[in-house]
Amino acid sequence: MLRALFRFLFTALRTFVRMLDLLLRGAFYALLIFAIGAVLALFFRPGPALAPGSALVLRPVGTIVEQAVLEPPLVLLRAGGAPAGQVALADLLEAVRSARDDERITALVIETDELLGGGLSKLAELRAAILDFKASGKPVLARGERFTQAQYYLASAADEVHLAADGFVLLRGLARYGTYFKGALDTLGIKVHVFRVGEYKSFSEPFTRSDMSDEDRESTRDLLGGLWQVMRDDIAAGRKLAPEAVDAHVHGLRAALAASGGDAAQAALAAGLVDRFSSRDEWRVRLVEAVGTAPGGKEARSIDAGDYLALIDRKGADARVAVIVAQGTIVDGMEAGGVVAGDTFARLIRDAREDERVKAVVLRIDSPGGSAWASELIRRELELTRRAGKPVVASMSSVAASGGYWIATGADEIWAAPATVTGSIGIFGLFPEFSEPLRRLGIGVDGVATAPLAGALDPRRPLDPDAAAAMQLGIEHGYRRFLETVAKARDMRVAEVDEVARGRVWTGAAAAELGLVDHLGGLTAAVAAAARRAGLEDYELVWPAAGESIEQRLLRRLMRAGEPFGIDLGRGLGGHAANPGAFALLFGQLQASAAGLARWNDPQHLYLHCLCEAP
């Protein structure tokens, strides 16, 4: 009896294990077949088609950048605060400018709901391309469920601006508020020794002050005033309003809302910021009216910018102009992307110099600076490229300040956008001292040294006065070197450079008047200037970059594989951009600040960094 019971249990268990094994094998093979099918569909699916009379749809997702960088896969798992994607400015510009002369494209459609921003100068350059398209006589239509300031600035270039009836246009002006840690550091007993030259070099002030200095306040007020003037005047011109009318709406938003009974959409309509309200279905009807329906369907004839780029016939040429993008903080060493790593970037410039097909180099800068050592390494490679007979043109994007300006001095000529943030010619050093917190914890630090400065830069001990004096002398020497470098590159006297330096930040328009840049214009103008210097009429544009691994390239393709089905792994189901809450934004900013400080690796601890960012 007992033996029969055990035999039954054993037989039942064996049957269960076999069934479980069968299910697992079946699931595994099903997943394997699905994965193989997905990969085959990804690489062999038919290309996009373009019906005559179509509209080009610009629907930028995430942040507009100079060069898209693949983020680590684990970033996708973070809740809130994670970027929703990146789109390269050059791709958008190429799509719009190609569509202008393409007879198959009869209209441009702008949908801004998933645009997070990208810096005023990038938006202005894209906006200029849209206006150029508009000048060809083809209509431009734009819509948003709601408009942030960056979204509206782009949409305001359209002939017709639509807004959801429950939406809003949020024009707030520009602001810069910093976080100051002196009180907290004093409470903890932490001292931060600062060595700098230039009363406007404000990067270290958050560690030494509890509020903004008068010099920083003056410089920031002038900078934001200049940038807002660019944005306000562009919006006013696009909407055929007086600049004062735009200012009146921004400053009188409360009164405008009171007059409209709290209806923000009606307030925007009354101010002339939008033309009409439309729901999503009404917007689809409007697009059909503009371009007609797609073959075999009810949707408007249209093509996405990404698909359109795949159809553009890029004719190769023997001669090349290389655009090398310096995007992010300048750091020492080698890194694949996300920062301007000195050794990596120097290698890119050297490769372009030694490539016989490359006849000119354009340095596209979007950087607030960083390591002084790495900045000089990059500048030197650019100088060697010029000596080799290849022209070098610097093109400033949203930010090209401090170390970003230092590397620009290696070029034959410098171009900047009117809204570029540049200058910040200065240098500083920081040294934290933790001797007091350790003393409070009862931790002693003692030892011997063979010379007065041996161990003098140990953060556990009070900073030796001789070491502090030595660091200040080094900072002052670095500043003189910065002035001399700029003076030589700009054909100015050192005293003239000092008058506009001292760490002060300028707009591109102001920098042009001061002689810090040669011309005002965007990337296209800078590329044309480099081609002229090289005597080129027919050339191919190439974008050298630190290489991605096979795994990274495959991941990027897979992340885009679901887009035709409304699924984007970088943005979530439905392809909508993330909308992080206030706490996610706060902690994201703190995390980004901490990560930025961790990258400060200049071997001499000297930094050419600007406390500035593009609005």
UniProtKB/TrEMBL annotation:
<dbReference type="InterPro" id="IPR029045">
    <property type="entry name" value="ClpP/crotonase-like_dom_sf"/>
</dbReference>
<dbReference type="GO" id="GO:0016020">
    <property type="term" value="C:membrane"/>
</dbReference>
<comment type="similarity">
    <text>Belongs to the peptidase S49 family.</text>
</comment>
<keyword id="KW-0472">Membrane</keyword>
<dbReference type="InterPro" id="IPR047217">
    <property type="entry name" value="S49_SppA_67K_type_N"/>
</dbReference>
<dbReference type="GO" id="GO:0006465">
    <property type="term" value="P:signal peptide processing"/>
</dbReference>
<dbReference type="InterPro" id="IPR047272">
    <property type="entry name" value="S49_SppA_C"/>
</dbReference>
<dbReference type="InterPro" id="IPR004634">
    <property type="entry name" value="Pept_S49_pIV"/>
</dbReference>
<dbReference type="Pfam" id="PF01343">
    <property type="entry name" value="Peptidase_S49"/>
</dbReference>
<dbReference type="InterPro" id="IPR004635">
    <property type="entry name" value="Pept_S49_SppA"/>
</dbReference>
<protein>
    <submittedName>
        <fullName>Protease IV</fullName>
    </submittedName>
</protein>
<keyword id="KW-0378">Hydrolase</keyword>
<dbReference type="GO" id="GO:0008236">
    <property type="term" value="F:serine-type peptidase activity"/>
</dbReference>
<keyword id="KW-0720">Serine protease</keyword>
<dbReference type="InterPro" id="IPR002142">
    <property type="entry name" value="Peptidase_S49"/>
</dbReference>
<keyword id="KW-0645">Protease</keyword>
